[in-house]
Structures are given as structure tokens and as C-alpha cells.
Design a protein that fits this description.
There is one protein chain. The chain is mainly alpha-helical and 115 residues long. The protein has helices at 3-6, 11-23, 45-66, 71-99, and strands at residues 27-31, 39-43. The chain has one domain: Winged helix-like DNA-binding domain superfamily/Winged helix DNA-binding domain (Arc Repressor Mutant, subunit A). 59% of the residues lie in helices and 9% in strands. It has a two-stranded antiparallel sheet. Strand 1 and strand 2 form a beta hairpin. The longest helix has 29 residues, at 71-99. It is flat.
Length: 115
Amino acid sequence: MRLGQRISLDRSTMADVVSRLSARGLIATERDARDGRRKVISLSPKGLHALQQLIPRTHVMSGRLVGSLSVAHQEELMGLLTELIKAHEKSVAPIKAELKPRRRAAARVSPRRPG
């Protein structure tokens, strides 16, 4: 699954995000060897360091968000959110296939008959 599709970003928004992250030195991009139209994105060492700094902060923020819930309710919430994410990921592929432009057959022009 493509990253933009997985996180529900359209192509132009995804291109903007990639451009900004690249400009900040947080990611590296290269052309896909199998499909030159696609980019392969990876974290740069600076991006990996930033991610390692952010992970503990996200755990603290998540704890604050659900801290007033009982452990049982926290587990239930996590289970429901996990189901929601899985359902979303399954639904994205069929929607994308429906939105894909179809190639139109070349229009046939009939020669005019005199008359």
C-alpha cells in the first residue's frame, strides 16, 4: 500500500509533505527502480533522530489523553481504534480503484455519406 493512501492524503498534499520533509533533511527520496514514476522514501539519519525524540513524547500525550479512563476502557478504546484503522485500510483500495480514471476508447468517426 502506498504511504499517501495509507494515511489518506491526496497526491498533491503528499507531494507537499514530502517536499517539506526533504527540505528539512528528515527524509531521502529516490526513484523506484521498478517504476520510475514512483518515489521511494526513507528516513535520513536526522529524520530517525527526530522520530526517536518524538516517540516518548507521543506516549506521554497519549497517556494524558486516556489517563482518566480505566485500564479496561483504555484497552477497549485501543481495540476499537485498531478495528477502525483496519477497516479503513481495507476500504481505501476499493475506493481508489473506483476513482481511477478509465481509458476511453478512441472515438470512431464515421465517414459522411453523400446525400
